[in-house]
Amino acid sequence: MNNIKVYAFVGPSGTGKSYRAQMVANENNIHYIIDDGLFINDNEIIAGESAKKAPTKIETVKKALFLKQEQKDEIRKAIEKYKPESILILGTSDGMVNKIAANIGLPPIEKIIYIDEIATPEEIQEARRSRVTEGKHVIPVPTFEIKKDFSGFILDPLQIFKFKGRNDKPYISEKSIIRPTFSYLGNFTISDTVFRQIIEYIAKKDPNIYNIIRTRIDNQPEGPYVYIELSVEYGGNVRNIVDNFKNKIIKEIEKLTTMRVQTIKIIIKEIHISKEENN
Length: 279
Known about the structure:
The protein is α/β, with parallel strands linked by helices.
């Protein structure tokens, strides 16, 4: 690790660091970022777990600083595996980024870049407004990268942002807007009824399904566990009916609620035979 060049991007909380992280990395030819407890290679999370999953602000800070030994070990192992030439660490102060570097065994920071060197006062003010009034946080990776970890916490993709950096290189990045677990705006929950209504809607549109007999939803923080009993129309391939129905449910629930379906169990209880078929 001694040969790694370590950079830092520093600014107060809510000033838009994570939003501009990929831009700063691109301008300094850096492909690895440490932000919010995550170790990121370009747009992919390769180690760590977002600190914003923590139940309290205090726990979030502890996670972001990599205070737990298992966190340190995971990040160190990933660094040894990927052997980055340089790393950009994000933090709210010089002290924070220096602590992060020390905790995960990186060399001293060579250069610190400050948010007011990158963003205008107006942009910083707007970022603060969004944080305070809407509880929005940005993570510099695509939504699909963190969806499995943030089930149920508002995951909106941020539009691709193109920029010509100081090196005149094309800059393309995907980001995700999330609302942390500890948000003072309140808990984000989805009623079981919502999942049932989505399932019923999909069933009504499927000509191979006659009726839903029973639905049971086990709504957990990591995502719903779904059990369904069906009555299907006579004549169709039961295996195909079940597989198609299952895939549609997963797709619609994840699209409409941002929650990741954990399991779906579908049982065929009846075969419906119409009067025309009997005749």
